[in-house]
Amino acid sequence: MNSFSFPMRSLLFVPGNNSKFISKAFDSDSDVLVFDLEDSVQSKENKLEARILLRNKLKVINGKKIFIRINDIDSGEILDDLKELTLECVDGFMFPKVNNGSDVYFIDKLLYNYELNNNFEFGKFKIILIIESSSALVNLKDICNTSKRVVSLAFGSEDYLTDISGINDGNDSILFYARSLILNFARAHNLIPIDTVYLDVRDLSGLEKRLNTSKRLGFEGMLVLHPIQIPLVNIFYTPTTVEVNRAKKIIELSKSINQLGKGVFIVEGEFVGPPMIKSAEKILDRIRLFTE
Predict the structure, then answer these.
(1) Based on the domain organization, do 16 and 154 belong to the same domain?
(2) Whether 143 and 195 share a structural domain
(3) CATH number (domain holding residue 60)
(4) Which of 51, 57, 117 is nearest to 82 (CA)?
(5) Helix (H, G, I), strand (E, B), or coil: what is residue 14?
């Protein structure tokens, strides 16, 4: 599992310039709070106000996992974002519109300098990368191998569709290639794969359908736009009691079977071999995130 292991089932976006929403976010059940300085804060003046507001709100460590979605590399705002918000209570930064390894290298070195100059432990600030362009997809190998700070790849579907001139018609099949590619690169590099937002926050049945596909694909969490989505998101990305009990049974039987020199056995009428044993171990590792 990733060395930066804690639950990342739900990552709630919170506008960085809304004092009421910021305060309420700390009472939510979201695993990660993502305070946004990019899309939800448009003007330069509002971005300045948002940095000041967030800095004042985040002065005290509160137990929540906190990331800041900074502005993209072409915005001219990154230096100010990091200058104000490299705080002790901040776990890391969500970096939007990354296109290649050079972009990742740039933010990595900026964070290194802020750590060095402010007496933070090297590597304190982690990075979640949002993959939201065709360039990012074709450069995923370079992107994943550039910085050890990167803990997760998240998919930004709306910017991606805009980039490729696609249309969001509510059919998940148009996003399958991008979602699958991001997930596979994340897993290959021991990073946490985070699925894209579900835009219709009132459509919980549609969200449930999306989550069912997302979990089966192998995603570990989802970007969330509204607190109403959090309970369902957390449920789907948490191993069920049935999954945990079956995993325990598989691990227990595998120990006995190994002593007999056998590689496969039957659990609940199904053949179980090495791949299923590894999956069971992953389920038990994952459930420990919620119980320890």
Answers:
(1) yes
(2) yes
(3) 3.20.20.60
(4) 51
(5) strand
Strands of the chain, DSSP E: 10-15, 32-36, 65-69, 92-95, 126-131, 150-155, 192-195, 221-224, 265-267, 270-272
Question: What is the model's pLDDT at position 18?
Answer: 93
Say if residue 55 is in the same domain as residue 134: yes
15 domain residue, yes or no: yes
For residue 4, pLDDT beyond 60: no
CB–CB of 225/199 below 8 Å? yes
153-206: per-residue pLDDT in tens? 999 999 999 999 998 887 778 899 999 999 999 999 999 999 999 999 999 999
Q: φ, ψ for residue 30 (rounded to 5)?
A: -65, 135
Asked if pLDDT for residue 3 goes beyond 50, the answer is no
Confidence grade of residue 256 (pLDDT, cut at 50, 70, 90):
low
Show Cβ contacts of residue 291 under 8 Å, excluding neighbours closer than 6 positions: none
4 domain-assigned: no
Q: Are 151 and 186 in contact (CB under 8 A)?
A: no
- The CA distance from 139 to 191, in Å, is 16
C-alpha to C-alpha distances, 175 to 186, 208, 215, 233, 269, nearest whole angstrom: 17, 17, 15, 19, 36
Q: Which residue reads 């993959």 in tokens?
A: 131
Q: Of 96, 190, 194, 177, whose CA–CA distance to 138 is shortest?
A: 177
What is the number of domains present in the chain?
2
Predicted pLDDT at 40:
85
One domain, residues 129 and 262:
no
The residue segments making up the domain with residue 280 are 241-288
**Residues 83, 86, 230, 26, Cα dihedral to 10°:** -100
Tell me, what's the pLDDT at 257? Answer: 66
- The verdict on residue 102 lying in a domain is yes
Does 2 map to a domain? no
- Quick one: pLDDT at residue 2? 45
C-alpha to C-alpha distance for 119 and 127, rounded to whole angstroms? 19
